[in-house]
Specification:
186 residues, alpha/beta, six-stranded mixed β-sheet, 10 strands
Length: 186
């Protein structure tokens, strides 16, 4: 997201910019987040799930949470594996928390089972099948496999994700990968 990088002046600049917009910015965490800074924000409940409230209109949708927004059920699961972590420095440009913990997977399953259907699944990385469709040379991992398991339940209407720095609509897997595009829930 870029608004919780180091807690410094640039963060405040980005937060001020988004705070001046006439809409609410919702995001799931990716792999290049500063989790120390992101997790320093207070946790509260918003529209049925836990969030980090960054500013009045910037909200981090936490992993494994279910929300109801405009009568639509949304399930979120952030995180992804960095493919370039060998070029990054731990605690400076890479954080181990980029990949979900066992507790986050367990919480996600618990919350996922509470609902019969979700209109949207919003994640950072894609499910394994979509990863293969994007590029058969891309590697899958536990996180992409977990998201695949969620989608295999047929409880998901549509899946939106990012991570791959491309804009692609994969109709075979009912997934939109967003990079420059944004989604508007109305």
């Amino acid at each position: 997201m870029g608004c919780c990088w180091d807690g410094g002046k640039f963060d405040k600049y980005i937060q001020r910019y988004w705070s001046q917009q006439p809409f609410t910015v919702l995001f799931v965490d990716g792999n290049h987040e500063n989790f120390k800074v992101l997790n320093s924000y207070s946790t509260t409940i918003w529209n049925g799930g836990e969030i980090h409230q960054i500013t009045d209109n910037i909200i981090h949708l936490k992993r494994g949470q279910a929300y109801t927004i405009y009568d639509r059920k949304i399930f979120t699961f952030g995180g992804a594996r960095s493919h370039d972590k060998e070029y990054r420095k731990e605690g400076v440009s890479w954080w181990p928390e980029e990949m979900p913990s066992l507790e986050e997977y367990q919480l996600a399953l618990k919350n996922f089972k509470k609902e019969d259907y979700f209109d949207y699944l919003i994640t950072h990385c894609a499910d394994s099948k979509t990863v293969f469709h994007i590029n058969p040379k891309f590697k899958t991992d536990y996180c992409t496999d977990f998201i695949q398991c969620l989608k295999n339940t047929n409880k998901i209407g549509h899946h939106f994700c990012g991570h791959y720095h491309i804009d692609v609509e994969d109709t075979d897997t009912n997934t939109d990968i967003l990079y420059k595009d944004i989604i508007e829930i109305t």
